[in-house]
Amino acid sequence: MTDDFTKRPLARSTAAVLPWERKIYRDRHGRGARQAMFGIRMPRYRTKSGMFDGMVVAQMKRLNAAWPQLLANVECAVEDVPPSDPVSWEAKRAFLSQSFPANHGIPARIVLYRRPIEQRALGRTDLQLLIRDELVSCLADLTGKHPEDIDPDWGL
Question: Given a cut of 80, is residue 6 above it in pLDDT?
Fold first, then answer.
């Protein structure tokens, strides 16, 4: 007599599958899933600093489309907060951005300070306008032009 159990191939049950062979498995302590809680395209996936960086890049692209010769030798950076001990000859103590002219082969630089700008903004559109105004005013300082010449909507 032959048993039907021996003729058919062994079926894998979910209990017999090793944890690392499962498609989704829990973390090493067995308390949570090892996958994202939300998709990477969802708005919550981006952090505040990531959204701020994206807004700065968008404004730089917009300005570069209008003035490619102005931004040819300009680097832009984002810092969280300004330095804690500003030098005594600086006129404004609480600043949102700084511009550094080109010097000895180093290109001109614009530094935006994320936290002070976010604290002044009332909403997302206000934040975009503040970033735009700060970038335009720093470019105006670096090039010697009026901010209205670079962006007619500056300060509105």
Answer: no
